[in-house]
Write a sequence for this structure.
């Protein structure tokens, strides 16, 4: 009898090249997708060490972190400029600003067929596992590791542990994939997933759109996971069907029959299993300065004296930074800025859902609000559907794609003391500008708050 | 890569949990490729918005300016994969970080830059913290990687620490990990040409060939 395997184990075994001298496992990387923030350092080092790129044909560079998003602005960062030079020098595929395929690296990977079920992918960004939603095993790496992939087309790892997260129950009104991610992190803490590859499953996952699954997988690094996966189903196969041009019919058949096997075997053993009952979850909002500091929108900020609350020792500092009080509701707090975007929530379904909330309405006079679509393709499709007009008429700015205010590396940041509702994935202190107070929510909640001008419950708008 | 064996230094205590990479190096310092990362390290905690030094912050205190060892809490380095966080710590002078735990991505980035990360159990950590911060005088700590031990000023062992044997070897010999993998590159070639299916996985995505 063969031993039942998890999906992760199957992909790990398939891509294992062997063990290195130090006992770590060498894993083959099928696709290497790089962004410009790491290019100058990594390529300068590659050049210095006189190493060759092993598989240029499996490597793509996308410009996203430092890209200007204001329409008509052509400011070119050093990173973009140097990335162009290196791409040319090394003869590498570059998806440059203003190209029709341009966008945030993880979104581009899922749109252009770089991320495919069962394939491995490396990307020098902590949100690499966004494409785990397609059943693609993605690893986030740093600059040195990027250089390692360029030189060897592998990464070298101790085998991660495995965790299964099972989502059961039913989704309540106004609750999205983002809310599930925030709820999960608030219940289990920011380090629960450290050392694990997580597989999300359960009836809730089955019923989710592929894009929603990407939001969930995107947030897995926020609780420390090495990577995350969802077994590919028909929805995923439909999602990728137009991205298989590089394969001939024979190869497509081969892949299809393989993809059919890409799920965990019954009775496969995980190192840990968690069950989340979604029926208990309301729309979520972060109150503090890490994603675990999250509450139901209708709850109060936890009392600091409650030592049972995860991370309570940090709470005082977070409360002070955020300018809020323990035991109080966040409802009716005045908001200055609303950001809908990032690799977490800037896909077509996010924009469509948010547009439904604001259709025919206008945002509060004291709020500045921007929408930054995740890619040019998303932007153009949204424009075709008239979504841009809904946002523009409501008073939002409609921007060009990029990472924008998620990382602030392109200069899109807020001002000291401003309260920002953001659909991105990190509410760290100063992340969106020095002294800026970030609350993470879903796109629908962010849209509702933009209308109200004050923190409110999205369910009143549905 | 520089090798790591024995390090004697004062210790900068910054014992907080979940210190993230945005705190270590704000994105403002990533925008400019020539940015002074040493200056950017914990920039917002070291200086107020007007650039005034915050003397209450440990790294702005005179006595810690030459510290090569950082003492910190749980889940240090969580957040993004930006290796600039490691470089900034390195440029400030840190060669060793002792914590209750690390984010995995950050720990890997440290190893690849020759920085020793030491994880200590809570009770041992508290003992060390007491030894370092007690009596209000700056004290030297000796990190002995070959012996896997920490020594105080008097040369007495405070505690031992665990480290994976291979990690120890990589650090002590200053081995470059890429060179280490390149020694096994034949097995990578073998994998690449093993069968049609493996070749299918490597179907070129880019228009350029090698």
């Amino acid at each position: 009898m063969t031993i039942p395997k998890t999906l992760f184990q199957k992909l790990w075994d398939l891509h294992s090249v062997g063990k290195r001298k130090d006992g770590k496992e060498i894993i083959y990387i099928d696709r290497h997708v790089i962004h410009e923030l790491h290019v100058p350092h990594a390529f300068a080092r590659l050049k210095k060490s006189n190493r060759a790129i092993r598989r240029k044909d499996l490597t793509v560079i996308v410009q996203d972190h430092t890209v200007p998003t204001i329409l008509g602005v052509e400011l070119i960062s050093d990173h973009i400029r140097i990335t162009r030079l290196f791409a040319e020098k090394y003869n590498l595929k570059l998806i440059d600003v203003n190209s029709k395929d341009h966008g945030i690296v993880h979104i581009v990977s899922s749109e252009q067929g770089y991320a495919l079920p069962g394939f491995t992918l490396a990307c020098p960004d902590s949100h690499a596992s966004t494409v785990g939603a397609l059943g693609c095993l993605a690893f986030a790496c740093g600059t040195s590791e990027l250089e390692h992939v360029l030189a060897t087309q592998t990464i070298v790892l101790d085998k991660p542990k495995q965790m299964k997260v099972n989502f059961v129950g039913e989704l309540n009104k106004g609750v999205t994939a983002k809310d599930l991610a925030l709820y999960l992190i608030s219940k289990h803490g920011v380090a629960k997933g450290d050392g694990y590859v997580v597989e999300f499953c359960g009836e809730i996952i089955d019923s989710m759109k592929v894009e929603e699954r990407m939001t969930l997988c995107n947030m897995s690094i926020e609780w420390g996971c090495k990577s995350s996966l969802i077994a590919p189903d028909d929805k995923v196969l439909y999602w990728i069907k137009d991205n298989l041009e590089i394969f001939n019919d024979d190869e497509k058949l081969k892949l299809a029959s393989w993809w059919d096997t890409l799920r965990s075997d019954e009775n496969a053993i995980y190192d840990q299993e968690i069950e989340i009952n979604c029926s208990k979850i309301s729309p979520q909002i972060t109150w503090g300065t890490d994603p675990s500091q999250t509450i139901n929108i209708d709850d109060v900020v936890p009392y600091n004296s409650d030592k049972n609350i995860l991370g309570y020792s940090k709470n005082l500092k977070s409360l002070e930074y955020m300018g809020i009080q323990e035991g109080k509701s966040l409802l009716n707090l005045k908001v200055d800025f609303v950001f809908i975007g990032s690799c977490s929530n800037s896909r077509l379904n996010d924009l469509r859902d948010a547009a439904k909330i604001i259709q025919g309405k206008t945002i509060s006079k004291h709020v500045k609000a921007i929408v930054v679509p995740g890619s040019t393709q998303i932007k153009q499709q949204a424009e075709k559907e008239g979504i841009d007009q809904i946002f523009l008429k409501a008073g939002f700015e409609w921007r060009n794609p990029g990472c924008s205010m998620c990382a602030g590396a392109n200069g899109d940041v807020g001002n000291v003391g401003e309260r920002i509702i953001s659909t991105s994935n990190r509410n760290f202190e100063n992340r969106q500008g020095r002294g800026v107070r970030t609350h993470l929510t879903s796109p629908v909640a962010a849209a509702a708050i933009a209308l109200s001008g004050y923190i409110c419950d999205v369910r009143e708008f549905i | 890569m520089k090798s790591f064996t024995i390090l004697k230094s004062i210790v900068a205590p910054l014992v907080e949990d979940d210190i993230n990479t945005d705190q270590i190096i704000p994105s403002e310092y990533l925008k400019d490729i020539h940015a002074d990362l040493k200056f950017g390290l914990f920039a917002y905690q070291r200086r107020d918005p007007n650039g005034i030094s915050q003397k209450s912050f440990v790294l702005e205190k005179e006595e810690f300016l030459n510290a090569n060892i950082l003492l910190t809490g749980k889940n240090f380095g969580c957040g993004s994969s930006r290796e600039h966080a490691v470089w900034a710590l390195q440029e400030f002078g840190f060669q060793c970080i002792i914590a209750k735990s690390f984010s995995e991505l950050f720990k890997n980035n440290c190893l690849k830059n020759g920085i020793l990360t030491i994880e200590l159990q809570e009770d041992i950590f508290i003992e060390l913290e007491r030894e370092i911060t007690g009596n209000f005088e700056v004290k030297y700590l000796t990190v002995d990687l070959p012996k896997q031990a920490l020594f105080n000023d008097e040369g007495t062992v405070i505690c031992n620490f665990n480290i994976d044997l291979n990690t120890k070897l990589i650090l002590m010999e200053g081995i470059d990990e890429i060179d280490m993998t390149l020694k096994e590159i034949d097995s990578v070639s073998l994998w690449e040409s093993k069968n049609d299916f493996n070749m299918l996985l490597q179907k070129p995505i880019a228009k350029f060939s090698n």
Remarks:
- The mean pLDDT of chain B is 92.
- The domain at 6-175 of chain B is CATH 3.20.19.10 (Aconitase; domain 4).
- The beta strands of chain B are 6-14, 69-72, 96-99, 116-119, 140-144, 149-151, 157-160.
